């Protein structure tokens, strides 16, 4: 089309205005994705696309087998006290927030559960005590690395 010629995009004069769709793509949009990486591939937050995304409620059949969940005895937001009397908040899957700002940046086991969703149950307290009677944060990470052959993505 030569410059300066009018273009009506196929709309006739006096007709309804052209309104492109506001939403395009896959509708309804998935609310949750599960990112799956190959064994030996570490997650890299700087990459826009990595691994394979699964929509758990998307209608595509799949089967997963959980081999190991680090800190399976804890839930995100749990507050614990460690062997040295320091209080910590757990953020799954790897991050610990020390309330006193001191070092080191992971708790010394064994751990005692102080808080979970308003107050821990006796069963939860016992489960955390039993699971942390031996071992350490480093042992949990090592078990995960051995199974995945990757390195955990931990906050700086």
Descriptive notes:
- There is one protein chain.
- By secondary structure, the protein is α+β, with helices and mostly antiparallel strands.
- It contains two helices and six strands.
- The strands form two sheets. It has a four-stranded antiparallel sheet with strand order 5-4-3-6. Strands 1-2 form a two-stranded antiparallel ribbon.
- The longest helix has 12 residues, at 137-148.
Summarize the structure.
The chain has 156 residues and is of the alpha+beta class. It is 14% helix and 14% strand.
Structural class: alpha+beta
Mean pLDDT: 85
Biggest sheet: strands, sense, closure? 4 strands, antiparallel
Could you state the order of secondary-structure elements as H and E?
EEEEEEHH
Total helices: the number is 2
Helix content: 10-25%
Oligomeric form: single chain
Descriptive keywords:
single chain; 156 residues; alpha+beta; four-stranded antiparallel β-sheet; two-stranded antiparallel sheet; 2 helices; elongated
What topology emerges from the helices and strands here?
Blueprint: E1 34-36, E2 52-54, E3 79-81, E4 87-91, E5 95-98, E6 112-115, H1 122-131, H2 137-148
Antiparallel strand pairs: 1-2, 3-4, 3-6, 4-5
């Amino acid at each position: 089309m030569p410059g300066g010629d009018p273009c009506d995009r196929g709309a006739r004069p006096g007709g309804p205005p052209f309104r492109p769709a506001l939403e395009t793509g896959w509708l309804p949009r998935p609310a949750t994705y599960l990112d799956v990486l190959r064994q030996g591939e570490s997650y890299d937050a700087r990459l826009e696309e990595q691994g394979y995304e699964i929509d758990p409620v998307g209608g595509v059949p799949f089967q997963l087998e959980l081999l190991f969940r680090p800190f399976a005895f804890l839930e995100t937001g749990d507050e614990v006290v460690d062997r040295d009397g320091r209080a910590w908040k757990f953020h799954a899957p790897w991050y610990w927030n020390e309330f006193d700002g001191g070092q080191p940046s992971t708790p010394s086991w064994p751990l005692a559960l102080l808080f979970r969703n308003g107050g821990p149950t006796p069963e939860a307290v016992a489960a955390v005590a039993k699971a942390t009677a031996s071992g350490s944060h480093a042992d949990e990470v090592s078990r995960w690395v051995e199974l995945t052959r990757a390195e955990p993505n931990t906050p700086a």
